[in-house]
Specification:
Elements lengths: L23 H8 L4 H10 L5 H10 L5 H8 L2
Helix pairs in contact: 3-4
Length: about 80
C-alpha cells in the first residue's frame, strides 16, 4: 500500500453487478404471482451473474478484496 490507496493496495471504485437478460419466459415468471423463487432459479439456469459471483471474480482478478465485496453486497 501507499498514501494514494491509504495502505490498502486499492484505489478508486469498482462496481459489482448482477446481470440477468429478460426473455419471454422471464417476463412470464415476473408477472406470475408466486414466481420470485422460480424466477431466481430460472435466471441462474440461464447464466445470470449474481452480485456474489461478480464480486468474487473481481477479487480473483485482483481488483478488490473479499472484505470489500462482503461490505458492499452483504454477500
Amino acid at each position: 500500500g501507499c498514501a494514494a490507496c491509504h495502505n490498502t493496495g486499492y484505489a478508486g471504485r469498482t462496481g459489482i453487478y448482477e446481470l440477468f437478460v429478460i426473455d419471454a419466459e422471464a417476463k412470464r415468471l415476473i408477472h406470475a404471482t408466486d414466481s420470485e423463487h422460480r424466477l431466481r432459479e430460472y435466471a441462474l439456469r440461464q447464466g445470470m451473474t449474481t452480485l456474489r459471483q461478480d464480486g468474487i471474480e473481481k477479487v480473483l482478478c485482483g481488483f478488490t478484496s473479499m472484505e470489500e465485496v462482503r461490505a458492499s453486497s452483504n454477500a
